Amino acid sequence: MSRIGKHPVPVPAGVDVKVDGQQVTAKGKLGQLSLTLIDDITASLEDGKVVVKPANDSKRARVMWATSRTLINNMVTGVSQGFTINLEINGVGYRAAVQGKELVMQLGFSHDVKYPIPEGITIKCDKPTAISVSGYDKHKVGQVAAEIRGWKKPEPYKGKGIKYETETVLRKEGKKK
C-alpha cells in the first residue's frame, strides 16, 4: 500500500495556495492552476502545508488519496519551478526549428511537419537536433512531448527518430545472409 498520501505538500515561498471546499488553486510566478477533488477526499491548509485526507473509509477514497496528493504537489511545483522534457532527434537530415508560434520539423517525409505550440508551453531548439518542451502544467508538457515524439518514434534498427533524452532505444540486429 502506498503511503504517499500521508505526507503533506509543502508550499514554497512565492506560491499562494487556496483551498475552497473541493477546489484547490495554486498561483505562482509561472501561472495559475486549479484542481477539483472528488467528494471522497478532503484537503486543508495547515502551517503552510496542504494536508490531504480521505473523507471516508471506502476503497475509492483510499485509492484516490495519494493520487490527489500527487496532483496537488505537481500543481505547486509547476507554478513555482515548472517542468521540462528534453527530446533528441536522431537521423541524417532530421532537424527541428521554432518559427514564430510553430515547431517546424524535417523528419524524412516529403514535407515539413508543422506543430502549433499550445498556450502555456514553451518550446526551444538550442541545437537543430534537440527540442526542449517546458511549462507549468505537468500533464500538458508531457502530452505535447508525446505528440512531438509521435511524429517519428525511434526505430530499433538504425535508431532514427525522436526520443526522450532519458530513453534508451533497444537496437536490433539486421537481416543476415
TrEMBL record:
Gene Ontology biological process terms, A to Z: cytoplasmic translation
Residues in Large ribosomal subunit protein uL6 alpha-beta domain copies: 11-82, 91-164
Cited Gene3D superfamilies: Ribosomal protein L6, alpha-beta domain (3.90.930.12)
Alphabetized UniProt keyword annotations: Ribonucleoprotein, Ribosomal protein, RNA-binding, rRNA-binding
GO cellular component, one term: cytosolic large ribosomal subunit
Pfam families: Ribosomal_L6
MF terms (GO), sorted A to Z: rRNA binding; structural constituent of ribosome
NCBIfam families attached to this UniProt entry: L6_bact (TIGR03654)
Known role: This protein binds to the 23S rRNA, and is important in its secondary structure. It is located near the subunit interface in the base of the L7/L12 stalk, and near the tRNA binding site of the peptidyltransferase center.
Oligomeric and partner information: Part of the 50S ribosomal subunit.
Family per record: Belongs to the universal ribosomal protein uL6 family.
Protein name: Large ribosomal subunit protein uL6
Organism whose genome encodes this protein: Azospirillum lipoferum (strain 4B)
